[in-house]
Automatic annotation (TrEMBL):
GO terms for cellular component: cytosol. This is Proline--tRNA ligase. It comes from Metabacillus litoralis. It is found in: Cytoplasm. It catalyses: tRNA(Pro) + L-proline + ATP = L-prolyl-tRNA(Pro) + AMP + diphosphate.
């Protein structure tokens, strides 16, 4: 392609509203332009990269035994009402009405649609297992779109769904998809980890996220420094063992603690360690109020609270709700003398606290000398806190460290969550109706594009992996008004295209410094500069990744490119 014919609006300055590298570089290199908050146009270079990522995804999905289809983005509300998610999915689901006042949603995901499709067509175990996938634009009304295409309201996604007659078949299909995802992200040149995750609004169990390691990631990965264990920090279990000291128990004493609300403030005010303080947080668990306790230096993990109660929704009680239920403002809440209808649960670390400190459910007052077995009614102790760096790895091998990650893929074992709700059944070998067992597998294609740039860039621009780059070779004649340089560049362009290379020829009437700057910004793997030695049949070849450059005689150019690019 000739650069004069392509739409590549590069920018010299970093846009003020672009916070992260991928967003900055995609704007500066002319890959995207914003249309409105969280919605972008993918310009020709980005479109070419997206198609290459999609091709990798297709190859791996096909190899895993999945067939491609395309479902509507516009989905009728009745399907979401069947599954129950019309009411529970939240404000991220974009809802609308047609001219007949019927409710619809723009597809955030397609579990309901694919389940309705398969239930109407598949009736026998003989047609299972079945795996289907699509690559399509999705819509989610993000409260705070940010980081360019990493978190937008419209994005490109590959979503796949599998249907099985047995759990063993689901396990086999899940393993195939897991391996396919590893292949996809490896082929995209990404440094990633597969981590144990929470299924969230999707439902189901046994789920993994594929995280691209990056400091700008919105998720925290807990991983072992001595094994392959990795999990989203929300899902990592704590296996620490706590020992109770033999110190004598003190009497319970209420004390005045004026304006001392936080653990930091109360530990400093009383000159006690955070480990002896009891943090008490009121949660609303499926409309039921539960008081959750943790050690002062630990943070309560609401996902673990949700799983403890097998709840659908867990959220912090508001200040008004806390005042109404406990007659107390947040900051002074504690587990002593609370109403019987409020269940109290505690993290395991709290069970060994002797002579602790907690809120007195009275403003500006705390208790000290707290011993929960004596002074409160804790219904159960469980693992309810976030794991911390330095904790023992859940697999018992090494210690936990943290890293930030960008989620680019997610695989779920949905089980019968949707098939039971939507009556998607098949007849088994005995002629009995059974709910289909499902799996779900998603890849953020446009997010993968941004994640690649986050990991592959330098101070001058993008540094594309060869198989993902929009073009492989960038030919730059130093002076297009020079007949020898222009003709040699044109001849090389046609010759290399004929040999199967993807070539971008910068034929613009621009200064060579502008051309080189744009070339580095766009980041194609190989640059061939046609300059003063064109009459001698010599060009300069420069590798974008290493910065290495060398002069090559035209007679040796094909062999050199073969060594570099393998074609």
């Amino acid at each position: 392609m000739k650069q004069s014919m392509m739409f590549i609006p590069t920018l010299r300055e970093i846009p003020a509203d672009a916070e992260v590298k991928s967003h900055q570089l995609m704007l500066r290199a002319g890959f995207i332009r914003q249309n409105t908050s969280g919605v972008y146009s993918y310009l020709p270079l980005a479109h070419k990269v997206l198609k290459k990522i999609e091709q990798i995804v297709r190859e791996e999905m096909n190899q895993a035994g999945a067939s491609e289809l395309l479902m509507p983005a516009l989905q009728q509300a009745e399907l979401w009402q069947e599954s129950g998610r019309w009411y529970s999915y939240g404000p991220e689901l974009m809802r609308l009405k047609d001219r007949h006042n019927r409710d619809f949603a723009l597809g955030a995901t397609h579990e309901e649609m694919i389940t309705s499709l398969v239930r109407d067509e598949v009736k026998s175990y003989k047609r299972l297992p079945l795996a289907l996938y699509q690559i399509q634009t999705k819509f989610r009304d993000e409260k705070r779109p940010r980081f360019g295409v990493l978190r937008g309201r419209e994005f490109i996604m590959k979503d796949a769904y599998s249907f099985h007659s047995t759990n063993e078949s689901l396990d086999e299909g899940y393993t195939k998809m897991f391996e396919a995802y590893q292949n996809v992200f490896s082929r995209c040149g990404l440094n990633f980890r597969a981590v144990i995750a929470d299924s969230g609004a999707m439902g189901g169990t046994d789920t993994h996220e594929f995280m691209v390691l990056s400091e700008i990631g919105e998720d925290t990965i807990a991983y072992s420094d001595s094994s392959q264990y990795a999990a989203n920090v929300e899902m990592a279990p704590v296996i620490a063992e706590y020992e109770k000291s033999n110190v004598a128990e003190n009497e319970l004493e209420k004390i005045v603690t004026p304006n001392q609300r936080t653990i930091e403030e109360i530990s400093s005010f009383l000159n006690v360690s955070k480990e002896t303080c009891v943090k008490s947080i009121l949660f609303k668990v499926d409309e039921k109020f539960v008081l959750v306790l943790a050690r002062g230096d630990h943070e309560i993990n609401d996902i673990k609270v949700k799983n403890l109660f097998s709840a659908s929704v867990v959220e912090l009680a508001t200040a008004d709700e806390t005042k109404e239920v406990l007659n107390c403002v947040p900051g002074y809440v504690g587990p002593i003398n609370i109403p019987n209808e409020i269940e109290v649960v505690a993290d395991q670390a709290v069970s060994v606290i002797i002579n602790g400190v907690c809120g007195a459910n009275e403003e500006n007052h705390h208790y000290k000398g707290v011993n929960l077995d004596r002074d409160a009614k804790v219904s159960q102790y469980a693992d309810l806190r976030f794991i911390q760096e330095g904790d023992v790895s859940p697999d018992g091998k090494g210690l936990i460290q943290f890293a930030k990650g960008i989620e680019v893929g997610h695989v779920f074992k949905l089980g019968t969550r949707y098939s039971e709700a939507m009556n998607a059944t098949f007849l088994d070998e005995n002629g009995r109706a059974q709910p289909m067992i499902m799996g779900c597998y998603g890849i953020g294609v446009s997010r993968t594009l941004a994640a690649i740039i986050e990991q592959h860039n330098d101070e001058n621009g993008i540094v594309w992996p060869e198989n993902i780059a929009p073009f492989t070779i960038h030919i730059i004649p130093v002076n297009v008004k020079n007949d020898s340089q222009r003709e040699l560049a044109e001849n090389l362009y046609h010759e290399l295209n004929t040999k199967g290379y993807e070539v971008l020829l910068d034929d613009r009437q621009e200064r060579v410094g502008v051309k080189f700057a744009d070339s580095d910004l766009i980041g194609l793997p190989v640059r061939i500069t046609v300059g003063k030695k064109a009459d001698e049949g010599i060009v300069e070849v420069k590798l974008r990744k290493s910065g290495e450059s060398f002069e090559v005689n035209l007679n040796d150019l094909t062999e050199k490119l073969t060594q570099i690019l393998g074609l």
